[in-house]
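User: Please fill in residues for this 303-position structure.
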């Protein structure tokens, strides 16, 4: 413990981790002592923002980076004071909060309203989610901008996350699936069929199951595979809405479900063709096309 506290006295806020390690070794700290100290140092030095800059001009980007670097050093200085026992944790947190406000204000002062909106968008939670979802795909800067805006609109409509579940946006939307369908159509329009298929396969496990069942069918196109998945999602949304419809008698609910399934089967048959439809419907992943035989159990063996 004393060794760790003493190590902070050799740390300078402007130094990065490799420089700190070299300084400690020169000060006589053993490699084992430095290794023990590194987790605390890396945690304390974790404030450097990984900003995205979108379409901001290069000179503006350079000024923002210089501002970020200045405030990072100041944040580290506050952290060092706490680690050295000069201020309390509460005082450190308050000082960091005030500095964060100054930091944001100074960055905004470098931008016009359009630049502020651009920087906010590309560094938003929505944009970070998009970058995770398109990882491995070739996407242009302009396409990313369109995807950011689509995701932001989707997130705004779907609402805040509560314990991993998103707040329902309306009584007619089962946890936002209809809103998600609109969002995904926008993504499909931006990416086109081939890239959207890759996008969907790496982000939606249910599509993987459906696609594995039909990918080897003769003459299957990317659009057909996606349209089948789309049809599956549309039926799920319709059934959720049907389940939540108030005042509907059980017999009427069952009849409505049977009509929905029959219409969906017709659309799937027209999409795949009779032979491929028959093959897919007999696969475990094709059971969703079965006609309802009673209120609780779909018939997986119907022709």
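Assistant: Residues filled in for all 303 positions:
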């Amino acid at each position: 413990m004393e060794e760790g506290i003493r190590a902070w006295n050799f740390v300078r806020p402007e130094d990065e981790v490799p420089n700190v390690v070299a300084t400690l070794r020169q000060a006589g700290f053993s490699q084992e002592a430095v290794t023990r100290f590194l987790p605390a140092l890396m945690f304390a030095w974790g404030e450097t923002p990984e900003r995205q800059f979108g379409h901001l001009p290069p000179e503006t980007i350079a000024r923002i980076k210089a501002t970020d670097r200045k405030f990072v050093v100041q944040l580290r200085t506050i952290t060092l004071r706490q680690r050295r026992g000069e201020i309390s944790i509460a005082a450190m947190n308050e000082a960091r909060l005030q500095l964060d406000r100054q930091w944001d204000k100074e960055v905004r002062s470098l931008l016009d309203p359009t630049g502020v909106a651009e920087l906010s968008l590309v560094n938003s939670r929505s944009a970070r989610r998009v970058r995770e979802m398109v990882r491995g795909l070739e996407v242009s800067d302009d396409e990313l901008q369109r995807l950011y805006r689509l995701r932001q609109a989707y997130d705004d409509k779907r609402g805040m996350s509560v314990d991993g579940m998103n707040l329902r946006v309306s009584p007619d939307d089962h946890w936002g699936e209809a809103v998600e369908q609109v969002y995904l159509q926008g993504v499909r329009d931006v990416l086109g069929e081939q890239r959207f298929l890759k996008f969907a396969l790496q982000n939606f496990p249910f599509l993987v199951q459906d696609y594995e069942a039909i990918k080897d069918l003769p003459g299957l196109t990317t659009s057909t595979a996606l349209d089948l998945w789309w049809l599956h999602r549309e039926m799920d949304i319709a059934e959720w809405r049907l389940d939540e419809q108030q005042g509907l008698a059980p017999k009427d609910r069952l009849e409505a479900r049977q009509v929905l399934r029959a219409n969906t089967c017709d659309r799937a048959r027209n999409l795949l063709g009779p032979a491929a439809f028959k093959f897919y419907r007999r696969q475990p992943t094709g059971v969703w096309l079965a006609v309802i035989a009673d209120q609780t159990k779909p018939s997986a063996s119907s022709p």
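For context: The chain has 13 helices and two strands.
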